[in-house]
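Why this split exists: single-chain examples teach little about how molecules sit against one another. For that reason, every record in the complexes split bundles all components of an assembly together and asks for one structure covering all of them. Below is a record exactly as it appears in the raw files.
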Amino acid sequence: MTPFSATASENGEQNKVHSADFHFDMPYALDAGIGLNRDTVEYISTVKDEDPWLRAFRLRALETFLAIPMPEVLKPHGIDDLNFDKIRYYLANNTGSQRSWDDVSPEVKTTFDRLGIPEREQKFFAGIEAQFDSEAAYNRIQDALTKEGVIFVDSTLGLKKYPEIFRKYFASVIPMGDNKFSALNSAVFSGGSFIYVPKGVKVKQPLQAYFRINAQNFGQFERTLIVVDEGAEVTYMEGCTAPRFETATLHSAVVELIALKNSKIQYITVQNWSNNVYNLVTKRSIAYENAEIRWIDCNIGSKLTVKYPAILLAGEKSRGEVLSIALAADQQIQDTGARMIHLANGTTSNIISKSISKGNGLASYKGVVHVNENLEGCKNNTQCDALLIDSCSQSDTYPKITVHGNKNNIQHEASVSKIDEERLYYLQQRGISKGQATSLCVNGFVNELIQEFPLEYSVELKRLIDFVLNPKRET
Amino acid sequence: MEMSALEVRNLTLSVDGKLILNDFSLTIPTGEIHVLMGKNGMGKSSLAKTIAGHPDYAISQGKIIFHGEDITQLSPEERAQRGIFLAFQHPVEIPGVSIANFIRSAMNAQNKKMETVAFYKLLHENMDRLELSRNFSARPLNVGFSGGEKKRCEVLQMLMLQPSFVILDEIDSGLDIDALKLVAKNVNSLRSGTFSGLIITHYQRLLDHIIPDQVHILEDGKIIHYGKPEIVRELEEKGYALLDQEEAL
């Protein structure tokens, strides 16, 4: 069993999709109530027994959130339907995160069992964190990595146990008031991962975090901070799901990555949100000298996703890459993109964005490529391809490129294509149904990016895309 | 009387308002291979695509009967699942979809599912027969293929799917003589009392290697001549003018 959708037969070809659409009605020992005000923030801070500086930070963030108007660009996307007064901002059981699945509460354990998390942990990952609503329920990292000084804990524990690293980098790449949703997250954040990889340590297998929303009318606000020291390397993978509710669910994370000199970070996201989720995420990273950062992002599901992973190329010869796949099915909006900010000589960046729109789904790409003044030897390559499945499907591309000086090399290519009827006919002529043929073509369209995901995930992704395009096959 | 494999009855066909076939009929008995010849632009490829259910070809009149069943209204995949296979004149490129993955999907769709190991064993055997190298099956379908590779890929699919009726639309175009022989040999390997087909070609040379049972000559949307394969040799020598003379007589 695998976490996003499916159980597969041994040959891996039958798409028996095992839905993530289930939840448990359960009591929560800790509940900040419905709606957002100072009391909500104070409650969260008290429950977490936080230092005064952090409490003050949260309260300032709340004021900032309330003061910043809703971005106009999100209004056409129906953001006003999201009522912040009806959301629950913190739900947890006061158990802390366990190091053994046997110690995790039955509902939570069953949830992650069904999503296949413990099973995968054995096979693929150097460490796992499993967050259930507001808090991590399980967290474990291989002992060998702990001995090498690698830290992988939830953010609450990270703040408590490693304040000297955490506080130094916390909100350093994404200031609290960067945007309305970074302010919101800063006010009520809970959970998420804190990772520190010491100098020269190369973590071979990925570290995995799994974010699960179980409760209705709920907002999940994890906060992830990854600091990779000089010459070190890590791959982090996050997966997200939620059950389908009639009411809105909010997911608003803040993720900061810091890649110090000569280090490498790869951050992989596979999300399959149900279509009642507003997914409003701020992700930004900074690469120092000769460091490399890659965001590999697959956005499936949600009602509205707004996410533009950014890389500040601050050190000479640092490299950045954003590879993203977005699938906007009927009634869904995927507003995604990438931001590359070149701040030093010889920095290079690459953006490949592939979007698929189905039904009246809307996929839009918003890219920023900026090269500072007086720089030379900077390169960017941007490729954005959109595929439309139906005549009512929509795709927009908004590239914004600002380059100062002429000693840099910037390339931008964009294409929009309708799914090719001759291709479908060819596949149908071999007995493949039109829906399956569409799915094959779409999988072909994103194949080069899917190859960038670890094998197990790439198989999963193909199945998931197939499932979204052929929902009737649900069993 | 034994049922025919394919019967095209009084077919009238237009594309974009242009009349392609007019009251056209053709019968291919089970176990036989027939040839359809005619000048370019006479509607041979349109007929092939229509038999295989291409959505752009609107049948205004007539029927297509396959082994006694009226398939005129069936979708392309339903026709394929009944055993009709069209080897395309210009197979379309499908980026990102490997040959192996595609053939496997097609076999699954046609209830010819095989276990992974057995599938690859059979695939490799058939690739060997077509003198295709092992890495061929990992390539994206038809993308950047040479003319010969495209045609051999079509035949590979045919060998894997084992259709009961094939339409070969100019399978000989773009092939050198060795490749032509290879393609012909493999098509012949499928021939049996239950295997039938329609070959569309301009050239005698293919018919030296796949010996047909009957030849039909198409002009102005109708069959103007019907006979034994020998007519083809005469046609090559004397051109289609031969038929015009016959008409005149």
